[in-house]
Specification:
Layout lengths: L6 E2 L2 E4 L16 E2 L11 H10 L3 H7 L8 E6 L4 E6 L37 E3 L31 H9 L7 H8 L5 H10 L15 H13 L11 H21 L11 H8 L20 H20 L8 H4 L1 E4 L11 H4 L1 E4 L10 E3 L9 E4 L2 E4 L9 E4 L16 H6 L3 E2 L5
Antiparallel strand pairs: 1-2, 2-3, 4-5, 5-6, 7-8, 9-10, 11-12, 12-13
Helix pairs in contact: 1-2, 5-8, 6-9, 7-9
């Protein structure tokens, strides 16, 4: 077999058959990708080694100069201070770039392509804030205009607010208070969106006849009205809330985007809030353009809830009070080698009922697609809390065990502790 590799001044050429690129590539053109990790002068490993050997924040920040890819936020602490530094190369782009790097562009355009790398001193850094707090949940950290913007795509808009609430709720923190924050399962998205999308649905009209969709909707709304937003695996409310918000998102965008709506596998809290608050006229998304009637946002909320409840009853039965979020939110730990082997997969793959969700500090990102959209496919495989005053009182836990060998007794011996939110000691003593 011969594998042909082609390169351009803008990076390696991607085959037209990959991701159906040929269908969107102009005739006579090919698609190329520019990426900092493809640099022939990548010194990231040297930077990582220097970072591990550093004896304090100044040395660690200096080591970051060698890190090329991937760019990431690095939290630092020593005996005298704290810091967060973005380590990794950030491309320098022409201010006249036609898509600002957000979309493919013609490589022949002189404004397209990297203009080298921004100096390390331009990478965001935060040291010893007066508040005494430094945290990051993949949220937006800087608001700089293009071309020094860092990114257009940030991973979080919700969890950082919950983290700030917990951190500012007390003047003195302990190891236990940080453990509490790591294991926090309150969903700020549900707390803010449910009262908004359901504003005109709660406690309206008379009790519906038993066994009707209206009666099921009323029962669900009563449960949600008394819920505090905690994504507890033993409760039905998280399952109802997540299914409802997913259905709302799909109803809002499906008629405008058609099949492209399938690409939005998770809800956008900011988008839904803008629609239901009619920010800048965004409320027009509620009207189904293919129908003669003009649907209101309340109509969409009601239809979406009925749709979500119908799907859930088909899967979990009519007694919604007995539904459990954990039955749908199973943590998926598949063996990387044997996980797809018939018969063996039932012995080596681990499934665990878990709390949390997409927007909780105890992260449990849902799959978003397929027959099991609420499966937990991305969580903290490692949790650690470090006590600088008494390092030997630090604690940690991993998601399954220390061994990747299915026949080892350490293959899954930590899994149940991880699931329950427990930790084991981290000691320097032999």
């Amino acid at each position: 077999m011969t594998l042909t590799l082609r390169w351009s001044r803008n990076g390696p050429i991607l085959p037209g058959g990959h991701y159906d690129l040929g269908s969107i590539t102009p005739e006579g053109h090919v698609a190329a990708i520019s990426w900092t990790a493809l640099s022939g002068k990548d010194t990231s490993i040297s930077g990582a080694m220097a970072l591990m050997r550093s004896q304090g924040i100044p040395e660690a920040l200096e080591a970051g100069k060698l890190v090329v890819a991937p760019a990431q936020n690095v939290m630092l602490a020593d005996q005298t201070g704290i810091a967060m530094q973005v380590m990794g190369a950030i491309p320098a782009r022409d201010a006249a770039h036609p898509s600002q790097g957000r979309l493919p562009a013609l490589g022949s355009d002189p404004a397209v392509g990297f203009r080298g790398i921004l100096p390390y001193t331009d990478n965001p850094v935060f040291r010893d804030p007066t508040s005494g707090l430094l945290g990051n949940t993949n949220n937006k950290t800087v608001d700089r205009p293009f071309p020094k913007h860092v990114s257009f795509d940030w991973g979080d808009t919700q969890r950082i607010q919950r983290w700030l609430t917990l951190m500012q709720a007390r003047e003195v923190h302990t190891r236990e208070s940080f453990i509490e924050a790591q294991l926090d399962t309150v969903n700020p998205t549900a707390r803010s969106l449910l009262p908004l999308i359901g504003a005109d649905l709660w406690f309206t009209g008379e009790a519906a006849p038993e066994g009707t969709p209206e009666e099921l909707r009323q029962r669900a709304l009563v449960l949600l009205s008394e819920w505090n937003g905690e994504m507890n695996e033993h409760l039905p409310e998280p399952l109802i809330a997540e299914a409802w918000m997913r259905a709302v998102m799909d109803r809002l965008i499906r008629d405008e985007l058609g099949a492209m709506a399938d690409s939005f596998t998770h809800i956008s809290p900011v988008f839904i809030e803008r629609v239901y608050r009619n920010v800048g006229g965004a409320g027009v998304w509620c009207d189904v353009i293919q129908s003669a009637a003009v649907e209101s946002c309340t109509d969409i909320a009601r239809i979406a809830l009925d749709e979500a409840l119908l799907e859930l009853t088909e899967k979990y039965g009519d007694n919604l009070e007995s539904w459990r979020w954990g039955d749908a939110h199973l943590a998926v730990h598949d063996h990387p080698v044997l996980g797809d082997v018939p018969f063996l997969k039932y012995f080596v793959n681990i499934r665990q009922s878990t709390s949390g969700g997409d927007d909780t500090l105890m992260r449990g990102v849902t799959r978003g697609t397929g027959p099991e959209p609420f499966q937990n496919v991305h969580s903290a495989g490692y949790r650690g809390v470090y006590d600088f005053a008494d390092p030997d009182s630090s604690v940690f836990i991993t998601a399954t065990g220390q061994s990747g060998h299915p026949l080892s007794r350490h293959y899954d011996d930590l899994g149940e502790l991880w699931r329950r939110g427990e930790y084991i000691p981290m000691s320097r003593r032999g």
